[in-house]
Design goal:
The chain is α+β, with helices and mostly antiparallel strands. The protein has 20 helices and 30 strands. The chain is globular, with a radius of gyration of 27 Å.
């Protein structure tokens, strides 16, 4: 729990971005406007799968007011036979996702783009572009894409020596899984399906790009990483990174969906051709049709156990939808599904399946919720068949420090048991549940656990003391989960000053050192580590300045409560020098005070979570309502408890949507039928209860403040927890998500 000696670490301080957001001062990407700006529009494929035989842009180019038209030939041509990786993204697929090259691979796939003096003229010009398509059969679902006679999306994809839509595999194993199953007293094997769901950020993608006459490019955009934007745009346009300056706008949600680019390289080429700054803003329809959802899945999980509940073997086979181009997050289900459990024999296999949908993107713990949905439901069934408490069975099988994870490393700190025990002892789990509160209404309770790797990575932080003795902290990663507030708390604590005197800003690619993406639950962990190192250097500078003023050795000076003090009586008797005092004397005592630290941070312990949920099912209507939800998670150290609770609650809400209502609907022509928030059913306030976040704080020994990543783990358990609760209510297990009213009523009608 919080160290009571801290004033700011663990305090619920005012959000540094709060006033700007509620008053409308916050500048989002779509708010940007520059002199001479024109508008870009994207032409999208009306077909789910089609060869592009030709594109005639002459009529569009001749329309008065049109300044530029671009197609895939204006981007770098990456040959199919050689990968070009940037992090986990392959630029071969990124280029073909941004503008279709050989084929249109999904309904809404960008084919060309226009820049014109107004949005209306640009839209009219798009209608004048003539695309000669050869329409092909399409495959939307995994089951269709992996059939022997499925239409093949890419002739260069081979699986087991044959043309295939399986674009890649991943296999992790330990022990001898067949031997393990032979030792089991009980084996449960089930197959599960889930649908793609969108990240659901409220702010659509938007950017403004200026290509200057000297070849220098300026980008303002909504993203989870301005350095990612710079690097991807450079590779896709062949413009040196040193010529690109990327500014991060305030961001209206990302959840992993803004970790790749869609618009920026297109806008760059339109600006280069037109000689004018170009602004492009996606509509909600564009976002839903053509930006990355989380993948759908087809999973089979088989687990064997002894009569006492000891798990002896597990096998998982996970097919994930990649969309039209390769790259589904296989490491999520393959590596995470069994990671919390000490199972001696495991075989976990993933298949990356291309189909005629928009290319997937990351979504909070990418892929892990899909694996947990299958694994945690099978574990619940085993516990039921053996007559065991499902939480007790999890504690019995928890991985321990020193165990080797299936994905490679040896576990250090393991705090899974603590999350399970927190739920087991909580009044929610102990409270009696009225299973039949009214005619036609049934209630049930379910639990599930989840695991996420967490990450460190490259981060840069600059700490500068202003002339009036306040502090400006510049970090290199967009704030999507409260990192500004957390860093302000850390810096105020370390420097011993009031929180209100610390201002945290996000730097662009030319004002701060390289910082990796905001994602993977890494930013607060990494930036707090780097901010700590920066503060220690600044404190060293402050002590040096005080020593010069007092004419004593710097070692004889200490820093406490925002002041330089003699370290002891032997150092002399001097009145304290505050941060403001030293800042006022900075120029005469050696110049400005400040420093920047850049680190590739390590030591990110994994995240564990256990959830408990009560549901109510209207048997006649098939409606599942969530009545009560409690989520326990070890966060290491809550630098800002309000944000930590918000991360947990937000993950739960998104999991509720995934479990009960969210899915893409397609018509017979492979077109998205519900591309908007009216028909795509994200949960709203009336769909969710108060969510209690049990914030467990077991400090990470490898971090100066004890931080673990928080944002990913909360979305992993809800799918299974809710499915297990629905089973408890109805006595029927659900193997397909979402558990929407039509599916629930259909299941209830089955004999």
């Amino acid at each position: 729990m919080n160290d009571m000696s801290n004033k700011w670490i663990g305090a619920r301080t005012i959000r540094p971005d709060g006033a700007d957001k509620v008053t409308g001062r916050a500048a989002y990407a779509a708010d940007n406007s520059v002199s001479g700006m024109i508008w870009g529009k994207v032409l999208r494929s009306p077909h789910a799968h089609a060869v592009i035989r030709s594109i005639d842009t002459s009529k569009a180019e001749a329309l008065p007011g049109v300044k530029a038209v671009v197609t895939a030939k204006d981007l770098v041509d990456f040959p199919i036979d050689k990968s070009v990786m940037l992090g986990i993204q392959d630029m071969r697929w990124m280029a073909r996702n941004i503008l279709a090259k050989e084929k249109a691979l999904f309904h809404g796939h960008p084919v060309a783009a226009v820049a014109a003096i107004s949005e209306d003229v640009a839209a009219e010009a798009c209608k004048l572009i003539v695309v000669d398509y050869e329409v092909l059969p399409h495959a939307i679902e995994i089951e269709d894409a992996i059939k022997p006679d499925a239409p093949i999306l890419h002739d260069w994809v081979r699986h087991e020596g044959k043309p295939s839509n399986i674009a890649g595999t991943m296999v992790l194993k330990t022990g001898d899984v067949e031997k393990g199953f032979a030792e089991a007293d009980i084996i449960v094997e089930r197959t599960f399906t889930s649908r793609p769901v969108h990240q659901g950020y409220i702010e659509p993608h938007a950017c403004t790009v200026s290509y200057a006459a000297d070849g220098r490019v300026t980008i303002w955009s909504s993203s989870q990483g301005q350095f990612m934007v710079r690097a991807m745009t450079s590779l896709l346009t062949d413009i040196p990174q040193s010529n690109i300056r990327a500014f991060p706008a305030e961001i209206g949600g990302g959840f992993g969906g803004k970790t790749i680019v869609y618009l920026e390289p297109v806008a760059v080429m339109l600006s280069k051709k037109s000689g004018r700054p170009v602004k492009i803003v996606m509509s909600r329809d564009d976002v839903m049709r053509a930006t990355g959802p989380a993948p759908g899945s087809l999973s089979t999980v088989k687990i064997g156990a002894k009569k006492d509940g000891t798990l002896v073997a597990a096998q998982g086979t996970f097919y994930l939808q990649a969309g039209g181009l390769p790259g589904s997050p296989l490491r999520g289900p393959v590596g995470c599904s069994f990671a919390a459990y000490a199972i001696p024999n495991i075989l976990s296999t993933g298949y990356d399946v291309v189909s005629n949908r928009s290319k997937v993107a990351a979504y909070r713990a990418p892929g892990a919720p899909l694996g947990a949905f299958a694994t945690e439901c099978v574990l619940d069934e085993i516990a039921e068949k053996l007559g065991l408490d499902p939480l007790d069975m999890r504690i019995r099988n928890s991985t321990k420090p020193g165990d080797k994870a299936i994905y490679g490393p040896v576990f250090g700190d393991v705090t899974f048991i603590e999350t399970v025990d927190a739920i087991r002892k909580h009044p929610h789990y102990k409270a009696p549940l009225d299973k039949n509160p009214a005619p036609g209404v049934k209630r049930g309770r379910g639990v599930a656990s989840g695991f996420w790797y967490n990450a460190g990575g490259e981060s840069s932080v600059q700490v500068n003391i202003t002339e009036d003795g306040n502090v400006v902290v510049t970090t290199g990663h967009p704030d999507v989960g409260g990192s500004r507030a957390s860093i302000a708390n850390v810096v105020a604590e370390l420097l011993g000053i009031e929180h209100s005197r610390v201002n945290v800003i996000i730097g662009d690619t030319q004002t701060i050192g390289f910082s990796n993406l905001t994602g993977g639950s890494r930013v607060t962990f990494a930036s707090a580590m780097v901010a700590t190192a920066s503060c220690e250097k600044v404190i060293g500078q402050l002590k040096d300045r005080a020593a010069k003023i007092w004419k004593i050795d710097a070692e004889a000076v200490k820093w406490e409560d925002g002041m330089a003090l003699p370290a002891g009586d032997n150092a002399g008797k001097f009145p304290p020098l505050s941060l403001k005092d030293l800042a006022a004397k900075a120029n005469e005592m050696g110049g400005p005070i400040g420093t920047q630290v850049q680190l590739n941070t390590t030591g990110a312990d994994p995240g564990f979570a256990t959830h408990c949920v009560d549901v109510e099912v209207d048997v006649d209507l098939g409606i599942v309502r969530v009545l009560r939800y409690t989520a326990a998670q070890d966060v290491g150290r809550a630098l800002h408890p309000g944000y930590v609770e918000g991360q947990i609650q937000g993950g739960v809400v998104q999991g509720i949507g995934w479990a009960l209502s969210e899915e893409y609907l397609y018509d017979k022509n492979g077109r998205v039928d519900n591309a908007g928030f009216l028909d795509y059913r994200m949960p709203v306030c009336s769909d969710v209860p108060m969510i209690e976040a049990l914030v467990i704080e077991i400090p990470n020994s490898k971090h100066p403040q004890g931080v673990r990543g928080v944002g990913e783990a909360p979305i992993v358990p809800p799918l299974a927890a809710i499915a297990n609760a629905v089973h408890d209510a109805l006595g029927k297990r659900f193997y397909a998500l979402p558990m929407s009213p039509p599916r629930v009523t259909e299941r209830l009608e089955q004999a």
